[in-house]
Amino acid sequence: MNNNNFEYKQINSRFIISDMDYQREIKMLKVRNIVANFNENLVNAIKVSYREGKYYVFDGQHTLAALKLRNNNRDLLVSCKVYFGLTKEDEAKLFSEQNGIHTKVGTADKFRSLYVAGDVDVVEFKHITESIGVIMDFKNATSSPNRIVAYSKAFYIFRNLDVGEYISIINVVKRAWNGDSLGYSAFILGGLYEFYKIYKGEFNDETLISQLSKISPRTIINEGKVTTHGGDKRFARQILIAYNKKLRKNRLIDKI
User: Superkingdom, according to UniProt (predicted)?
Assistant: First the structure.
């Protein structure tokens, strides 16, 4: 990717578009906040990519919306830094790397843009997760069954365990709680990750699924939060307690 081929120019806002495959939805609260604290001396040029005869904004979408709002929602000429020769994947990659105070990209937006950019790890992460019937669409949506929303936690587990173990953890949630959205929360996924690390080779997957099905993920979370320190091991301990409950043999010793 060559991002040194650019020029500054004035472009009418009507010709600047967003590629929603990697862009986020406009948040009007953020736009109004920019307008309320507007200082034209601090406004950076909108970064756009000239691709296939069109101008695609990849950095400054909310600033652009704020400029239009200040102009009574009418189009206007805006200062742009126009990049040439970028692919859609390049734009998505640059979008994901934004880290300015006003443009920090949210977790779901970042993962979606990295997926569009063809990031090998993220593409594999999504493919493997969805191969077992769990939705991973990188949307900031309300929780629903069999949909992962704790992307960062799930990705951390994916990167730090082998693929088989990652699939096993996701399957535990899917089977024990019928894909209850709380089961895919960072608390439960983190607790299962710690449990798997500590008791690798010592527990039985089917027993774990059966035992967890007798307790709700909400209970595990609430009981774990009683302890204010310990990180994800707080929830791993609750998983251990659930695993051992009423077992007459092959109980696990407390190593947490």
Answer: Bacteria
> Do both 237 and 143 map to the same domain?
yes
Report how many domains make up the chain. Answer: 2
First to last CA, the chain: 47
Q: How far apart are CA 56 and CA 24, in angstroms?
A: 13
**Is residue 253 one of the residues assigned to a domain?**
no
Which residues, at least 6 apart from 155, have a Cβ–Cβ distance to it below 8 Å?
111, 121, 122, 125
DSSP 16: E
Q: Which helix (H) or strand (E) holds 8?
A: strand 6-12
d(CA 86, CA 106): 23
Read off the pLDDT of residues 84-96 as tens digits, 9 standing for 90 and up: 999 998 998 888 7
Q: 211 and 177 share a domain?
A: yes
Kindly give the residue spans of alpha helices, DSSP state H, lying in the chain.
28-36, 61-70, 88-96, 107-116, 120-131, 151-160, 163-176, 186-198, 205-212, 217-225, 233-244
- Residue-wise pLDDT tens digits, 11-57: 999 999 998 888 878 888 888 988 988 888 778 899 999 999 999 99
How high is the pLDDT of residue 24?
76
Under-70 pLDDT residues of the chain: 1-2, 98-106, 141-142
Q: Tokens standing for 82?
A: 């126009």
C-alpha 75/C-alpha 16 separation (Å) is 10
What is the chain's mean pLDDT, rounded?
90
Residues in the chain: 256
Q: Which residues pair with 83 in a beta bridge?
A: 6, 49
pTM of the model: 0.67
In this structure, is the dihedral angle defined by the CA atoms of residues 203, 206, 211 and 212, taken in order, positive or negative?
A: positive
Strand partners of residue 10: 79
CB of 169 closer than 8 Å to CB of 159: no
